[in-house]
Amino acid sequence: MKVLIIGQGGREHALAWKLAQSPEVREIFIAPGNAGTAELGMNIDLPVTAAAELAAWANDAAIDLTVVGPEAALAAGVVDAFRARGLRIFGPTRAAARLETSKVWAKDFMARHHIPTAAHRAFAHTDEACASIHSLRPDEYPVVIKVDGLASGKGVTIAENAQSALDAVQAALGDPSRPARIVVEQFLHGFEVSFLAISDGRVARPLARAHDYKRAEEGDRGPMTGGMGAYSPVGSDDRLIGEVMATVIEPAIRGMAAEGTPYEGILYAGLILTSEVPRVLEFNARFGDPETQVILPRWSDDLYRVMVAATEGKLAELPPFRWDDAAACGVVLASAGYPSEPITGLPIQGLDSRKANALIFHGGTRREARTNDVCTSGGRVLTVVGKGATAEEARTVAYARADRIHFEGRQRRNDIGIVD
Questions:
Q1: Of 321 and 178, the one with more pLDDT
Q2: Phi/psi class of residue 355: alpha, beta or left (left: φ > 0; alpha: ψ in -120 to 50)?
């Protein structure tokens, strides 16, 4: 079988690595891919948002299954374009992906279907949003300001006081030439969990849980990023899994079907485990990055067969998913200047050395044709993953391997995977 993966980050490299292990997969293509994916298949020079061109290429190449990685492709209607041609593709339609692509729509959807989330209000005008900020008491801070639409994991501000909240509102809504909406919501205290499930539009099955680190600096300080690392598993409480499936995932799948937009693909609920019930911080409509890089190495099933079953509405026919008891820890190595203005085009040393139980997933990398060097090409350059019998062992392996990789200005967090 021939598989096309749409995307160019660490998540897509991990997907290619996992799908390549299926005995049914003969060829893998990645559009546009990176230096790492080129070692597993053929990179195709098409952007992730070129829906019509991607569908035409897949049709001509007789692709058996296409897998969508990034949210930008979903927002561009790639799944719709493929389905219009009768091509098999794993991922939600543009309408279903509004669970991620519109924070306002998602919040309204959760209210309609009684899915627990934070108290919130949506605004499209600066004066109304600022008036709401001015009405807050000091003990109601911090508050969270979220920009509606896609922001690559960086459209969230946790405002500790009124001035920082007003600044975030002004930044989001102050430019009349750039229409926007924001959500102002209650800050929830608790432990964050990335809870992923796979759905065929009717049935949903949970995947392994993970915890990711969104802030750029250690101790969860600094600006928000697309993710600086992750670890899995997170807990093994069957009661919690059942509660989240019953109160979050299954109501979302039923609600999407009831509203005429059946949800097929990965539904990722970013949860906060409060002292009351798990609440949804946000939905994502695809595999997470860097969560995918620590979840897939622990999954023992054939991902190709699982995805095909999901596209055929046959998840209920599959046996229970099997998970490795080992822990996985992923550390992101990022470019200098990330997340605001990453410096790229720098050669990377240390990729060729080997270490047992360590994996390297490429994100922002490319191979320089003139020198054949692998160089940086984005903000999050690599995710270095360690596996071990315990979380601490996995963390030790990941950092030991990361220490061997160098490029000018390399930055990372040194507290990934520390489990209390």
A1: 321
A2: beta
Look at residue 152 and tell me whether its pLDDT is greater than 70: no
Q: Which CATH class is domain 191-317?
A: alpha beta
3 state DSSP class of 266:
strand
- The CA distance from 259 to 256, in Å, is 5
DSSP 127-159: HHHHHHHHT--GGG--EEEEESS--TT--EEEE
The domain segmentation of the chain, as residue ranges, is: 2-93, 119-186, 191-317, 327-402
Q: What is the dihedral of CA 286, 157, 379, 393, to 10 degrees?
A: -70
Question: Which single residue is written with the structure tokens 């501000």?
Answer: 157
| Mean pLDDT, residues 5-26 taken together | 98
For the chain, the 3-state helix, strand and coil shares in percent, each to the nearest 5, are: 30, 30, 40
Q: What is the mean pLDDT of the chain?
A: 94
Please give the structure tokens belonging to residue 96.
């279903």
- Of 197, 270, 265, 266, give the one whose Cα is nearest residue 230: 270
Tell me the pLDDT band of 400, cut-offs 50, 70 and 90.
Answer: very high
Can you read off the two tokens belonging to residue 68?
């969508």
Class of 119-186 in CATH: alpha beta
Q: Which of 367, 365, 370 is nearest to 383 (CA)?
A: 365
User: Quick check: 95 pLDDT over 90?
Assistant: yes
- As beta bridge partners, residue 336 has none
For domain 327-402, give its CATH number from 1.10.10.60, 1.10.860.10, 3.30.530.20, 3.90.600.10.
3.90.600.10
Please tell me whether the overall predicted TM-score, pTM, comes out greater than 0.85 for this model.
Answer: yes
The CATH number of 2-93 is 3.40.50.20
- Neighbour-count burial for 132-157, b at 16+ CB within 10 Å, e otherwise: ebeeeeeeebebbbbbbebeebbbbb
- How confident is residue 276, by pLDDT bands cut at 50, 70 and 90? confident
Q: Hey, do 119-186 and 191-317 end up sharing a CATH topology, with the first three levels equal? A: no
Helices and strands, number each (H, E), in the chain: 13, 22
φ/ψ of 341, rounded to 5, equals -135, 80
